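hey m, so remember when u said the C-alpha cells were messed up on ur end? i reran from scratch. heres the input so u can diff it against urs
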Amino acid sequence: MPESPRTLRLRLSYDGSDFHGWQVQPGLTTVQQTVQDALAALSGEPVHLHGSGRTDAGVHALAQVAHCEVQSLRIPLPSLQRALNSHLPASIRIDAVDEVAAGFDARRDAVSKLYRYRIWRDAVCPPFLRRYVYHHPYPLNEVAMVAAAPRFSGSHDFRSFAATPAKGAPAVATTVRTVLRSELHRQGPELVYEVEGRGFLHHMVRNLLGFLLDVGRGTRRGEEIPTVLAAANRRAAGPTAPACGLYLVHVRYDHNIDGKNGVHGL
C-alpha cells in the first residue's frame, strides 16, 4: 500500500534582485520555479510549491513560507534541507524544513505578514548595499512622514494604493485590507518603514511608501490619507517606490497549527 503524501513547510530567504518575482512566469526566472525545480530534481516527480504570498520582481525575503505535497520524497528533513540548498543558487536559501499536517496552507493559514522598506539617507550609498536599499539622499521632512505612517492602520479599502490590474487579469474579490501596524523610524543612516497586515494588494506596500515619500517632499500631507483612501482610485495616491528596498520579514501563523512558535521570520 503506497504511503500517504508528506506535506512539507519551507522557510526560505532570497535576494530578489535577479528574479522576476516569486510567482512562476513562463520563460522568466522566478523564485517559485527555481525551488520547484530543485524539489523535482530530488523527488523525481513534479512538485508544486505554494507560497504565503507573491513578492514582486526585485523584492527580497528574509522569511518567505511555502508548502508542498510530495509523494516519493522520503529524505530525512535535515538532509533534505542540505540537498535543496546544494541544488539552489546562492541567492536562495532554505532556512528550515518541517513536516506538517495535511491541509496546512502557507497562504490561507497566515495570520499576518510583516514587510520592511529601507531608505538610505546618506549622500553616498555603499556599493554593496545598492541592491538592498533605496538610495534617497535628497531633503525629506522625516517628522511629517513619521506622523503620517500610522494613518494607514486599520481596515480600509486600499484600492488607491493597489497596482492597476493588467489587461485581462482577474479582478481581486475585494480591495479591503487590514493593516495592523504602520510605522516609520530612523535607524542610523536609514529611514525604515514597517507595515504589518493580514494581507496586501499588488504593489500596496511600495505605493504606501511612495505616498509617504511625497509627504516628506512636501507635495502631499498626511492629513490627506483618509481622502485618498475614500477616492478608491490609483491616480489619487502617488508614485510606486522602487522594489529594491522592500523585504518580506516574517509570516505569522496561529500557534495551534502545529504546536510550534507561530512566527516564521526574523
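this time it looks ok to me. The chain has a mean pLDDT of 93. if urs says something different then somethings off w ur setup not the seq
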